[in-house]
Amino acid sequence: xxxxxxxxxxxxxxxxxxxxxxxxxxxxxxxxxxxxxxxxxxxxxxxxxxxxxxxxxxxxxxxxxxxxxxxxxxxxxxxxxxxxxxxxxxxxxxxxxxxxxxxxxxxxxxxxxxxxxxxxx
Amino acid sequence: xxxxxxxxxxxxxxxxxxxxxxxxxxxxxxxxxxxxxxxxxxxxxxxxxxxxxxxxxxxxxxxxxxxxxxxxxxxxxxxxxxxxxxxxxxxxxxxxxxxxxxxxxxxx
Lengths: 121, 108
What we know:
- By secondary structure, chain A is mostly beta strands.
- Chain A is 0% helix and 54% strand.
- The termini of chain A are far apart.
- With 108 residues, chain B is mostly beta strands.
């Protein structure tokens, strides 16, 4: 059974840092790209960052570029998100998600349970 | 960038059929995926690649895609279907996902 479990959420002051982790099990983690997707309170879904299967290729949403860093440890089957210079607008539930693909498209299944990050003074 | 449009809300009585639309320019050329999200829970995939269902998703959930609209249809709606529903496609230009704004399904 595929499982993704996030950890590391919490309350942090603006300008400070926080690191999220996502522990994966039930699939060959090193074969797949992984995403972080977030959801601000009462809002919709927004992709944050992607990392390739081998960790060499990364991409970020403009809203977090230069502040967030995605990484992975395939030996530990762990996905990470280092969040620096946090802003109140970064307050959200952060989900890690397994990117599934066919020749036509890509989708997410499953998602982790989410980690709440609250940026507030 | 590519934009997906969903109605903010849809209401339906139990046992009836709910239709939630996802609109986009020539969306029929893209694969459309649907997620169900209940309060306080993570999104769950209910339809992928326009009309395929993951294991464990009831046949009551079906999708289609043509032209500029891709509807998610939920037949014989149950109280447990009350949730937010999001559509998603892949923006091949930017090589990233695009999500619709979400539709709140209310079971009357």
